[in-house]
Amino acid sequence: FRRRRNLPPGPFPLPIIGNMLQLGAKPHQTFAKLSNKYGPLMSIHLGSLYTVIVSSPEMAKEILHKHGQVFSGRTIAQAVHACDHDKISMGFLPVGGEWRDMRKICKEQMFSHQSMEASQGLRKQKLQQLLDFARRCSEEGRAVDIREAAFITTLNLMSATLFSMQATEFDSKVTLEFKEIIEGVATIVGVPNFADYFPVLKPFDPQGVKRRADAYFGKLLTKIEGYLDERIQFRKANPNAPKKDDFLETLVDIIQADDYNLKTDHLTHLMLDLFVGGSETNTTSIEWIMSELVMNPDKMEKLKAELKSVAGDEKIMDESQMANLPYLQAVIKEVMRIHPPGPLLLPRKAESDQMVNGYMIPKGTQVLINAWAIGRDPSIWKNPDSFEPERFLNEKIDFKGQDYELLPFGAGRRVCPGMPLANRILHMTAATLVHNFDWKLEDDSSAEADHAGELFGLAVRRAVPLRIIPVVKP
Ligand code: HEM
């Protein structure tokens, strides 16, 4: 059938379930192995969801750039139907007028250089809290669970930038609501849902995914709407008060100017997308950065020396100083190469039939770009499994969407709009942790084995949480 329709090759599918049994716990790794046999454009059947997997920079460029318009759609998981998010969200709407307006707001207002510079003071305060927490752990000789610390820091950095809010606290028994909601969303969206592969099951919601997603999305939207109302009322009551530097202020400006053909719902759902989109991704990346550095002490020392030469005795640098830290930049790129947080990016969908490399990709096909496989391809990277930031020092390759060998943020029309903020969060958090402390493993007996293990979910995280003790040099 495949040959008759000239579809991309792939493993033989079983009736009804297709290739589901072959997926395993780490689909990105399974797909990488299968693509060695079937090639960089391979097709599989996930239940009734026909899917094409892309595993080379050349094919990724065909999909994301040359035929970018055709492959600009998204397949929508059932969880995303929560609170009608699929009908109104920038992350899931098809490319069109509303989507374009929201991308424009992101590019020109929220993530502009000017806006990022203005909000950096908010982020510095949150990094100070991380520093204080690590200092307390150091004094008590206790290990930091880096994932937990990274999660709290990321949530606080995101909520400061978006709403000037504190999302959660270190060392507190009180779990503030934000943390609970984002953890809930990550769990629900990360769990495979059979209804996504067998649409006949959708109305029955057999795993309760839609019901739980409705509850979490609803809570988060209610909070965002509350902040928005509060800010609008505050502006009315204090027309001459100085404006805040967060995204919420931009949102109020947009609503009041009424320059776009968007409803308030579009903007509150946009804030939800930004908050959720930035949380798990940054958290897992920070844990991998620290994990790789602790397991590669010579690289850690090299980075420390660079930070010392630029920051001196300053504890938290300015974000503008990141441009003077080429080794730090190389470390972040190397982590993004080996551990892209979303190894298969966000699913794209063919909006019409399209021939690619001699094969037919029919309308409606889900297309996954295996950035993990491309990042570990030995024909592209020397020693692909080893952590060597030096490979980027004399190379111009970057992850901004122009170089198809390195695609953690995707590329083309739907490239991650939050990249400017993610860039700042990753560089600044890593710099703060590395510059102010030496780090040693709490238990190094099984460190090597633990380090390699991955856990597939909304983002691919370290399977065993990294626990390391901060030490302040006398
Ligand atoms: C390490 C951090 C991050 C990584 C690796 C990452 C990765 C990605 C990827 C792979 C995509 C899909 C791109 C494509 O289809 O070509 C994406 C889309 C998106 N990201 Fe990020 N992201 C990160 C941080 C952020 C942050 C901080 C935000 C917001 C503050 C954000 C918001 C979004 C949104 C809203 C989309 C959907 C865009 C659309 O469909 O038009 N991301 N991201």
TrEMBL record:
Report any one BP term from Gene Ontology: terpenoid biosynthetic process
What is the enzyme's main class?
Answer: oxidoreductase
Instruction: Show the taxonomic lineage.
Output: Eukaryota, Viridiplantae, Streptophyta, Embryophyta, Tracheophyta
A GO MF annotation of the entry reads: metal ion binding
What name does UniProt use for this protein?
Answer: Unspecific monooxygenase
What is the annotated localization of this protein? Membrane
Q: Which PANTHER family match?
A: CYTOCHROME P450, FAMILY 76, SUBFAMILY C, POLYPEPTIDE 5-RELATED, GERANIOL 8-HYDROXYLASE-LIKE
CDD domains attached to this UniProt entry: CYP76-like
Gene3D superfamilies associated with the record = Cytochrome P450
This entry carries the following GO cellular component terms, namely: membrane
Does the record bear Heme in its keywords? Answer: yes
Q: Could you say which residues bind heme here? A: 416
